[in-house]
């Protein structure tokens, strides 16, 4: 597989970030060459399109790292799904493959800043954003593992969507 993280990485912090970068690059590769119709059309019973999935990844990472761990205020934390957690993923007219990939990569840079600013991966998320005061919050290590599994699962789903669209398989 192309561009896998170095198998000699031992630092957990850098390993998390390297795998997240790998999955972001994989998302880019999976979208490359798809037509506008293929990007915006679902071939799956669940109904999501490849661009809706990318928008979800952008917002998911924001929810867990920025709104969750750092407790940054967010007007619309569920901006990928019309404003609530329970609604299906939705695109706005302004959402394009370029704008969403730019947002995905910018989110990755922000995640790197958040992780770099944390003293320890065992540090707990701040209360006040995604997590209310008085409740135990997850550690940064748990959040990074969760975000990584979200990427892995959704990139696998994107593999299937790509294969159904044009037969493309692999990395």
Automatic annotation (TrEMBL):
Gene3D superfamilies: dinb family like domain. It comes from the Bacteria. This is Uncharacterized protein DUF664. It comes from Kribbella voronezhensis. The lineage of its organism: Bacteria, Bacillati, Actinomycetota, Actinomycetes, Propionibacteriales.
